[in-house]
Write a sequence for this structure.
């Protein structure tokens, strides 16, 4: 009986691992893995399915917004950007200066105030093909103590239209 329970538990655990997307468990890029994750980066909705727009026929949109948040301390943005997951790893898509990144999220002078969410409203993926994928937005910031920290937010864009 014990052997059956152990085997069932093992198989259930293996099934759970197989059901997870590799992007969820893949190692972080080196520059992010080395920093404590003290900031939040979120996306809504997540996962995000595609939609279409009659004003742009032949284009699929994965419409979502993204939010930055520092819960306990003010944080000054150093850089931000996004990675895309392919070839079994995170690949840099874009890296932005503090000024560029802060502008997208409406962070005045690049200073994230503690407890204040900052939102990039129209952070949309668009393509002529309907296919899913993974993205990861990141922010690196400095706390008043001088400590560098980061936040990451992974986003699953699904290769299906809403309502299918």
């Amino acid at each position: 009986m014990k052997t059956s329970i152990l085997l069932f538990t093992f198989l259930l655990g293996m099934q759970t691992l197989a059901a997870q997307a590799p992007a969820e468990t893949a190692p972080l890029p080196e520059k992010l893995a080395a920093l404590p994750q003290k900031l939040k980066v979120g996306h809504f909705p997540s996962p995000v399915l595609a939609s279409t727009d009659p004003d742009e026929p032949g284009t699929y949109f994965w419409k979502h917004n993204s939010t930055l948040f520092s819960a306990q301390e003010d944080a000054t943005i150093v850089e931000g950007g996004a990675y895309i997951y392919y070839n079994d790893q995170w690949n840099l898509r874009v890296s932005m200066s503090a000024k560029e990144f802060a502008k997208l999220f409406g962070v005045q002078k690049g200073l994230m105030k503690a407890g204040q969410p900052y939102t990039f409203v129209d952070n949309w993926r668009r393509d002529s093909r309907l296919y899913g994928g993974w993205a990861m937005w990141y922010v690196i910031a400095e706390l008043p103590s001088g400590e560098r920290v980061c936040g990451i937010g992974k986003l699953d864009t699904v290769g299906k239209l809403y309502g299918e």
Q: What stands out?
A: The first strand starts at residue 40 and ends at 44.
